[in-house]
Amino acid sequence: MNSDLEYLPVPAAGLDRIRCNGHDDYGNPVVARTADAGTPLRCCLRLSAAGEQIALIAFQPSALGGPYAEIGPVFIHVDECPGPVDDGFPADFLDRRAILRPYDASGSMLDGVLAEPGMSEGELKRLFDDPQVQVVQVRNVIAGCWNFSVRRSAS
Ligand SMILES: [Zn+2]
C-alpha cells in the first residue's frame, strides 16, 4: 500500500544518541517510568500498553530551524524499539483530536487546522494541496505536544 505522505517519528539516530547519552539533547536525564495504557509514543507512533518502560524527553521536531522550531516534551521507549511498523497514517492517532500545523520551507508557520477525531488524515491531504506547505506537525490539542511530522514522500 503506497502513500504519498511520510509520517515521521523521532528519528532513529536521535533516539540512539539520547539513549546512549542517558540524557536528551537539552541535558534532561532519561528516567524510566512505567506507562499507563494510551500514552502516545513518538518513537513507534502508537499508544503504549500498560507496563511498558517509557521516558519523557525534550525534543525539537523541526529540521527546518528558525524561531518557530519549538522544543517540547515527548514520550519514547526507554530501550531500543522497532519504530513504526506501518508507513501510513499511524492507526492509533486516527481517532484523536489533533492540531495540524503546516510550515513552509523556511520553517515559518502557516494557517493550522483543528482536526476532529477521524478527520486528521483528510485534513492533512488538503493542507498538502498547498505547494507552500513543506511539513505538517500533528500535535495534541490541549498541551500542544508534538506527536509526529508529515511530509510528501520523495518520489
Ligand atoms: Zn518505541
Fold blueprint:
Elements lengths: L4 E4 L3 H10 L11 E2 L5 E2 L4 E2 L5 E7 L12 E6 L20 E6 L9 E3 L4 H8 L7 E5 L6 E7 L3
Antiparallel strand pairs: 1-10, 2-5, 3-4, 5-6, 7-8, 7-9, 9-10
Bound molecules: zinc ion.
The site of zinc ion (ZN) has 5 residues, from loops.
List cofactors, ions and other ligands.
zinc ion
What count of structural domains?
A: 2
- Strands across the major sheet, in which order? 1-10-9-7-8
SSE string, helix = H, strand = E? EHEEEEEEEHEE
Extract low-pLDDT stretches. Answer: none
Average of pLDDT: 95
Properties at a glance:
5-stranded antiparallel sheet, 2 helices, 155 residues, globular, binds zinc ion, 3-stranded antiparallel sheet, alpha+beta
Can you characterise this structure?
- The longest helix is centred in the N-terminal third of the chain and has 10 residues, at 12-21.
- The strands form three sheets. A five-stranded antiparallel β-sheet has the order 1-10-9-7-8, with helices on one face. Strands 2-5-6 form a three-stranded antiparallel β-sheet, with no helix packed on it. The chain has a two-stranded antiparallel sheet with strand order 3-4.
- It is built from two helices and ten strands; from the N terminus they run βαβββββββαββ.
- It folds into two domains: 7-77, no CATH class; 91-152, no CATH class.
- It has helices at residues 12-21, 120-127; strands spanning 5-8, 33-34, 40-41, 46-47, 53-59, 72-77, 98-103, 113-115, 135-139, 146-152.
- The protein is an alpha+beta fold and 155 residues long.
- The two termini are 15 Å apart.
- 12% of the residues lie in helices and 28% in strands.
- The structure holds zinc ion.
